[in-house]
Amino acid sequence: MIRLTFLLRRKPEQSLKEFQHYWLHEHGPLVASHANHLNLLRYVQVHTLDDPINAAMNKARGGKMEAPYDGVAELWWENEALLQAALGSPEGEKAGADLLEDEARFIDFANSPLWLNCEYPQVNPTPENIVASVKSNIVKIHFPLRHQTSMPEAEVRAYWLQNHGPIIRSHAPASGILRYQQVHRIKHPLEAALREARGTIVEGYLGHAEVWVRMDRVQTNESRAANQAAVEDEARFIDFERSAIFAAKEHIIVDRR
Predict the structure, then answer these.
(1) At 107, is the secondary structure helix, strand, or coil?
(2) 133: left (phi over 0), alpha (psi -120 to 50) or beta
(3) Does the pTM exceed 0.85?
């Protein structure tokens, strides 16, 4: 499976509410209408919440993190061959052009990075049906991260996967984590083409962590210890000031798994 992550910042003249409304009710159906031409397996919109939890998570990591993105577009394909076939077909090219034209109406392209990636599930109940829906008490924490430049990228990726992942898994029951996965950016020639088409200038990320948590849990000594352990270990390899973290809700537009 191959996945595209598209971190979105809205145009400056839009409010967050206006941006998310257009994205959900106008752009979402447009993507769904082209799902067959694009060989899309799944398409989810992750809408950032305007909630004090974002400031609290920032503060816990020094208070100087990047501003939360306004949302994240997530797209999946069964495999790379199907993605390449879609982009190389006349129908797929037409679909891509239509979507790009509509994206320009509400997305600040220059400051909205996108890349291809693969998933490494860490806490992953099956079936994978945990969703941070609007009317649920579940939120999705989205954590796009950049690593400390004093460490080689390969070393950081290994540490994130082999050391940090087990730490988070060990504390999952106390911290209320329902699902947690690491999504690692992969080097792919398509990324450069996508960035060029949109005029993206902001630096990409190493990848992102995504965590689904229940928000109705009472804080305990165990949960506080779990949160402290997570942040202390993050500080070993993450450059907080060049990373972002935010809570969000999910809207599933296409799901053909």
Answers:
(1) strand
(2) beta
(3) yes
The CA–CA distances, whole Å, from 16 to 10, 68, 170 equal: 7, 12, 36
Size of the chain, expressed as the number of residues it contains = 257
Q: How far is CA 144 from the centre of its chain?
A: 7
CATH number at residue 162: 3.30.70.100
For residue range 193-246, what is the model confidence (pLDDT) as tens digits? Answer: 999 999 999 999 999 999 999 988 778 999 999 999 999 999 999 999 999 999
Residue 171's domain spans which residues? 2-255
Dihedral sign (CA 111, 22, 77, 142): positive
Residue matched to tokens 């004093």: 150
- Tokens 């792919």 found at: 188
User: How many domains does the chain divide into?
Assistant: 1
Residue reference for tokens 């993050």? 234
Pairing of strands 177-185, 114-123: antiparallel
